[in-house]
Write a structure and sequence with these properties.
Elements (H helix, E strand, L loop, with lengths): L2 H9 L10 E5 L2 E5 L3 H10 L10 E4 L9 H17 L2 E3 L6 H7 L8 E4 L13 E4 L2 H10 L1 E5 L3 E7 L8 H12 L8 E5 L1 H4 L3 H8 L2 H4 L3 E3 L4 H11 L16 E6 L6 E3 L7 E3 L10 E4 L7 H11 L9 E4 L4 H9 L2 H8 L2 E2 L20 E4 L13 E4 L2 H10 L40 E9 L6 H4 L27 H4 L5 E4 L11 H9 L3 E4 L4 H9 L4 E3 L13 E5 L4 E4 L4 E4 L5 H8 L5
Parallel strand pairs: 2-3, 2-5, 3-4, 5-6, 8-9, 8-11, 9-10, 14-15, 14-17, 15-16, 17-18, 19-20, 20-21, 21-22
Antiparallel strand pairs: 1-7, 12-13, 19-23, 23-24, 24-25
């Protein structure tokens, strides 16, 4: 078996598992954040569900660890009150990013399992553990049962050979991999890394790479734990750890050998993390702001790299540099090593530990027309504000902040670029109307088609993060697609009973349940896509929202406005407008059971 198969088999009390098999997996750490946490509490209380094991159940406040937004502050207090009543530990606003906390506190270790409402829980692949981001229904079920159902993914083996060039960082490694594989060619796979380059990677470097697995569309990027990781895990847990390694005869769906000696420093261009290019192509692009932090690059090695660039230098006039360590422990270590003084003397804003610009705007978002270079893992439109966001390594971000434009640490000018403001850009918010939810759930449905011919439509395009404080499903539909170019008026025009047909990797990105529930509020009967983001697909299945995949709809000749009939059980699709038929993947047994039950609960 592969690493993920062995971990899941151990936690499902099975001798062996294979790809495609669905099992109940025992979860070692069941976690909810301040984002998604209030919905988890709501599900538990509304359904009168008990807590399976409070000692394995946690809340982490990291998306808005200042409580600067009143609705977030209220939601955090809802969680605090629930935790107090049920004996659940909270890592509160003074702690930092929850996934990093699991590693630091020894709550996750090589071979363990963890689920959270953070879509980057697969960061735990850095230590050879199974981590998954899931929606609030899944997490509530995990709190109650201690287990979740899971379909074993196929595995891919990637071997990195050669010698890594100077100034090519861990962030550059994953951006080079994104350049090769894109956002969904490895969709739904568990990926294992091997080779001489991998063996030399530190824990911090492994964290950086694993944390961008979500952006590659994979279930998880797994590193077999080396001695450094094992020693760290044993120290944090206080016990001997038996790591999980793949068998010598493990079966992989695909195998790649990649020469890392040809890797170059890269950036992701605004809008798509996988739109990566050699940094030479984007050098001299004027920036307004820079950000160092997030679960991808808020580690101690990242802070030292930034300090190495900023020492005895100043941030360019008119440029704002924000630095946010991933955890309070790292923040204090920066203080002890004198890095905070270097940051402040350079003119940077240093915030308390947390997710920062990546989530709820802990240190503020960028505005329309603003250009930011960031160490984050996402640069979807609207994710860090209304401006444009480039993704790069910590050293590149620091160098760019000093230069005033995108550059590398070995090419910083004596005199920084003079800032020239962009023109004003007007934004008009379209009014949206709430539609009534369709209540009956037949096995076969018929309706008008809405063609949305785009790949990798992420959850910020479906349901933007500025609405994340909304917990009432009836209020969600009016905001569906209002951040998707060309479909901003979708919620106004869609009719109850319509069906959505879209491309590959639909629902990639965040773990937000609202991106599913909003369609149900509007009365959309089903969503057909070539593939779905892993978390989105789970959220839809658990909410009894029909989602089906297809290889091709050419036989049925489906076009926008056609009326089609889809059978969830048989997978047949009939175009009533053109009298043509075709096939989609039918519901699995688990999906049908949850659907007929009206949802997970």
């Amino acid at each position: 078996m592969t690493i993920i198969e062995k971990i899941i088999a151990q936690h499902a009390q099975k001798a062996q598992v294979k790809p495609g098999e669905i099992v109940d997996v025992e979860i070692d750490a069941r976690v909810a954040r301040d984002f998604g946490g209030p919905n988890v509490v709501q599900h538990l209380e509304n359904n009168q569900l008990s807590i399976d094991d409070p000692s394995k159940t946690f809340f982490t406040f990291d998306t808005n660890p200042t409580g600067s937004d009143q609705k977030y502050a209220a939601n955090q207090q809802v969680i605090r009150n629930y935790a107090r009543k049920n004996g659940i530990k909270i890592f509160d606003i003074d702690n930092g990013i929850g996934t990093h906390t699991l590693i630091r506190e020894g709550l996750a270790w090589p071979g363990s399992t963890a689920v959270t409402t953070d879509s980057h829980a697969n960061i735990l692949g850095a230590i050879g553990a199974f981590g998954q981001g899931m929606g609030d229904k899944d997490i509530a079920a995990a709190f109650h049962k201690g287990k979740v159902w899971f379909k074993i993914p196929p595995s891919v083996k990637i071997t990195l050979e050669g010698v890594l060039p100077d100034r090519v960082t861990a962030k550059d490694i994953v951006l080079n991999l994104l350049h090769q594989f894109g956002a969904h060619s490895l969709l739904g796979y568990s990926v294992e890394f091997y080779g001489p380059v991998v063996e030399k990677l530190t824990l911090d470097q492994r964290v950086t790479i694993s944390s961008m697995g979500t952006e590659m569309g994979v279930i998880i990027l797994l590193f077999p734990p080396n001695n450094e990781v094992l020693e760290y895990a044993r120290a944090q847990t206080g016990r001997m750890i038996e790591p999980v390694y793949a068998d010598a005869d493990a079966v992989y769906d695909q195998e790649y050998t990649i020469d890392a000696s040809v890797f170059v420093p890269m950036v992701s261009r605004p809008g798509k993390p996988h739109d990566t290019v050699n940094i030479a192509e984007e050098k001299k692009v004027k920036i307004d702001s820079a950000f160092v932090g997030s679960c991808t690059n808020g580690r101690m090695e990242d802070m030292r790299a930034v300090a190495g660039v900023l020492r005895n230098k100043k941030v360019a006039p008119g440029v704002v540099l924000k630095i946010v360590p991933a955890t309070d422990e790292i923040w204090n270590q920066c203080l002890d090593e004198g890095l905070i003084r270097i940051f402040k003397e350079a003119g940077a804003l240093v915030s308390n530990a947390g997710c920062a610009g990546c989530a709820a705007g802990q240190v503020g978002q960028n505005g329309p027309g603003e250009v930011t270079v960031s160490t984050g893992n996402r640069n979807f439109p609207g994710k860090q504000g209304k401006g444009k966001v480039y993704l790069a390594s910590p050293a590149t971000v620091a160098a760019s902040a000093v230069a005033g434009y995108i550059t590398t640490e070995d090419d910083i000018p004596e005199i920084p670029a003079v800032f020239e403001p962009d023109g004003d850009s007007a934004l008009v918010a379209a009014e949206a109307s709430t539609k009534k939810q369709v209540s009956d759930k037949p096995v076969e449905v018929s309706g008008r088609v809405w063609m949305v011919p785009k790949d990798s439509i992420d959850t910020d395009m479906i349901f933007h993060n500025r609405y994340l404080q909304i917990t009432d499903p009836e209020q969600m539909g009016q905001y569906i697609f209002d951040n998707l170019e060309g479909f901003e008026d979708f919620a106004q025009k869609v009719k109850p009973g319509d069906l959505v047909v879209t491309g590959a990797n639909f629902g990639s990105g965040s773990s937000r349940q609202q991106a599913v529930d909003g369609f149900m509020t509007l009365g959309v009967q089903a969503i057909l896509a070539q593939s779905f983001g892993a978390i989105y697909e789970r959220n839809a299945i658990n909410a009894a929202m029909p989602v089906l995949t297809y290889d091709s709809l050419e036989e049925a000749a489906v076009e926008d406005g056609d009326r089609i009939r889809v059978n969830f059980k048989t997978g047949t699709i009939f175009n009533e407008t053109k009298n043509r038929s075709g096939k989609v993947a039918p519901f699995s047994e688990v999906q049908m059971e949850i659907y007929q039950n009206g949802g997970l609960f």
